[in-house]
Amino acid sequence: MKITTIGLDLAKSVIQVHGVNEHGKVGLKKTLKRDQVLPYFANMAPCLIGMEACGSAHYWARKLQTLGHTVKLMAPQFVKPYVKTNKNDAADAEAICEAVTRPTMRFVALKNGEQQAILSLHRARQGFVKARTAQANQIRGLLSEYGIVMAQGMSHIAKRLPDILENSESDLPGIFRQLLQRLGEHLKELDRQVGELEVQIRTWHQQNEMSKKLEKIPGIGPITASALVASIGDAKSFKNGRQLAAWLGLVPRQHSSGGKPTLLGISKRGDSYLRTLLILGAQSALRVAARKLDHACSWLAKLMARRHQNVAAVALANKNARIVWALLAHNREYRTDLAV
């Protein structure tokens, strides 16, 4: 029996295989260990392979593509409805095999090694930023127990902590001073790690032409531009700019029934990191735009006049996402004379 479609259920140690022929008849059910996967598929005729977009999926997709197979990744929530029985590896592989053949299925674009590398820098930087914020809050909270209150902001801790440690007239115990010094050094180390990763990201940004194009959009800087280019990959996988905005969760969530349309707040689907960067960049662009002379008659000024500032920021982030798609999909340069 010639196998034409295969579903792979990925795991850390074992991978479940489910294959069918061109008529949908099951002809393959097999469990493979990690070191058995590539030799097994190297001896198989090229076929369509479906996988869930989970951990290591992009790695296996690249490896299987080099063997001549066609690989498609799907979001796990789109595969779940095809699981017929109780959840297990065999049922999941069967569901994946069926879902990948659906004509209306939405697929995830494959990422190459360079894309994953720059996204790894972003994830590591995001982790250090969260750890730095948590450490700063811990220092501020511990000091408040001794009646020392600091203003919010990382810079206030860096300015006041040395004076607090050197102040011999305060009633801080010696063991607490030692702890503060240790926590302060840890905070400096986290800040140094964030800075070094940002330098790496900016270096990659300067070497990537598409990322430099996106930087010209108001509200998008090197960090956001590099993250978008690495995450989106081929923008032509999206039909239009609205699909990209929907993929980022920047469009209204719909709950309509009986022919009555009901639109709610933004869906918040997709990558929260990218959505956060776009919204924060839009908020920054709003503050800058309000000081420009040509802002009064613009689309953004009219929006800010009738809606809350946060709503305007999300609207601008949505618009920027559509501009990003236009620049990436059609290989264009951003033109300020076309902005309204």
**Main beta-sheet strand count, sense and barrel state:** 6 strands, mixed
What is the tally of helical segments?
13
Helix content: 40-55%
Spatial strand arrangement across the major sheet = 3-2-1-4-5-6
Distance between the termini: 60 Å
Mind explaining what this structure looks like?
With 340 residues, the protein is an alpha/beta fold. The protein has 3 domains: 5-108, YqgF/RNase H-like domain (Nucleotidyltransferase, domain 5, 2-Layer Sandwich); 113-207; 210-257 and 265-338, no CATH class. Helices cover 55% and strands 11% of the residues. It is built from 13 helices and 8 strands. The strands form 2 sheets. Strands 3-2-1-4-5-6 form a 6-stranded mixed beta sheet. The protein has a two-stranded antiparallel sheet with strand order 7-8. A hairpin with a 4-residue loop joins strand 1 (5-9) and strand 2. Helix 10 (241-247) packs across helix 13. The chain is globular and about 85 Å long.
